[in-house]
Amino acid sequence: MDVFLVDRARSQPHNRELLAFRDEIQEKIDHWHRRNGPPADLAKYRDFLAEIGYLVPEGPDFRVSTTNVGPEIDRLGAQIPRRERSA
Question: Model-level pTM?
Answer without folding.
Answer: 0.59
